[in-house]
């Protein structure tokens, strides 16, 4: 099953911050946008594995 999740991403000074809507605990920060997106993907996958 392919579920879609919404990531909210913003830049704050030198850091990129992001979190996944409706999935508690999936939030990350990184130095670049690409690093943030990858970190969110990994963290989301871990959370989904943990909750299932």
How many structural units, i.e. domains?
Answer: 1
Proportion of beta-strand residues: 25-35%
What's the SSE pattern? EEEH
What are the low-pLDDT stretches, counting only 5+ consecutive residues below 50?
Answer: none
Distance between the termini: 13 Å
Q: What coarse outline follows from CA principal-axis ratios?
A: elongated
Number of strand segments: 3
Total helical elements: 1
Global structural class:
alpha+beta
The overall average pLDDT, rounded, is 94
Describe the sheet with the most strands.
3 strands, antiparallel
Give the strand order of the largest sheet, numbering strands 1, 2, ... along the chain.
1-2-3
Assembly context of the chains: single chain
Share in helix: 25-40%
C-alpha Rg (nearest Å): 11 Å
Compact overview of the structure:
This protein has one helix spanning 33-51; strands at 7-12, 15-20, 27-30.
Structural overview:
The protein is α+β, with helices and mostly antiparallel strands. The protein has one domain. The protein contains one helix and three strands, in the order βββα. The protein has one helix at residues 33-51; strands at residues 7-12, 15-20, 27-30. The chain has a three-stranded antiparallel beta sheet with strand order 1-2-3, covered by helices on one side. The longest helix is centred in the last third of the chain and has 19 residues, at 33-51. The radius of gyration is 11 Å and the shape is elongated. 15% of the residues are buried. The model has no long low-confidence stretch (mean pLDDT 94).
